[in-house]
Amino acid sequence: MALVVFTGGARSGKSAAASRLAESHGSAVVVAVAGVAVDDTEMAARIEQHRADRPSAWTTMEVAGLPIAEWLPAVPAGAVLLLDCLGTLLSDVLWGDGKQLTDETEAETLAHALTDALAARAGDTIIVTNEVGMGVVPVSTSGRLFRDVLGRANARLVAHADAAYLVVCGHSIDLCAAPTDPVWPTHE
User: Fold this and answer.
1) What percent of the chain lies above the pLDDT cut of 90?
2) CA 144 centroid distance within chain
3) Residue 86 maps to a domain
4) Of the spans 50-59, 95-104, 149-158, which averages the highest pLDDT?
5) Sheet of 80-84: strands edge to edge?
6) Dihedral, 77, 69, 22, 84 alpha carbons, nearest 10
7) Cβ count near 125 (within 10 Å)
8) Which of 25, 50, 112, 160 is the catalytic position?
9) Which domain range does residue 108 map to?
10) Residue 56 lies in a domain
11) Is 67:97 a contact under the CB 8 Å cutoff?
12) In a domain, 46, yes or no
């Protein structure tokens, strides 16, 4: 069982890198997506493009509104689970079905349950997620809550990951090779 995380900014190439890795595995692939609101045609087009870019043999599960305890066990242990993406799924968990979650402690609890379940999965898992810490501070309370909770969820997943990559301009940088603690430079 391996857990691999791909993070990066919008249009960085993280989904493509994750798909290439999943395809190279040689196993069946199940792609879990949160889906899209009925009236969001732009997001629907983005999701459809991602589907068109994937091999036709892959199975897609739309998991919006479903508790992870319901859909995660339905993914066969021998299949690679490709979750694309954690940010969209977490947004659905926090605000789907008209929820108005504003409590950071409750949001953290829900995010921990989600990331812990994914990290404990018995099969190979690839997670695509958004790197949210490099942009401007969101203007809204819910935007800041989302950024903070997803940022911590990403760090939590990477701490459990067997491999983690930051994708920038289509290139994957190995995060596990980077030090977690800064080191004071020495001059010899």
Assistant:
1) 58
2) 18
3) yes
4) 149-158
5) 59-62, 29-33, 80-84, 125-130, 3-8, 163-168, 171-174
6) 170
7) 26
8) 50
9) 3-167
10) yes
11) no
12) yes
Residues in contact with 35: Cβ distance below 8 Å, sequence separation at least 6, in sequence order: 47, 62, 63, 64, 92
Q: Is 171 a catalytic residue?
A: no
How many domains does the chain divide into? 1
Q: What is the share, in percent, of the chain residues with pLDDT greater than 70?
A: 98
C-alpha to C-alpha distances, 185 to 13, 179, 182, nearest whole angstrom: 33, 13, 9
Alpha-carbon dihedral sign for residues 76, 77, 78, 79: positive
Within a domain: residue 19? Answer: yes
Q: 166: how many CB neighbours lie within 10 A of its CB?
A: 19
Task: State the CATH number of the domain containing residue 41.
Answer: 3.40.50.300
Helix and strand numbers, DSSP H then E, in the chain: 6, 7
Polymer length of the chain: 188
Residue-wise pLDDT tens digits, 35-53? 666 678 887 787 788 778 8
Predicted TM-score (pTM) of this structure: 0.91
The two beta strands, 29-33 and 80-84, are: parallel
- Concatenated DSSP letters of 112-127: HHHHHHHHT-SS-EEE
pLDDT (mean) for 18-37 = 85
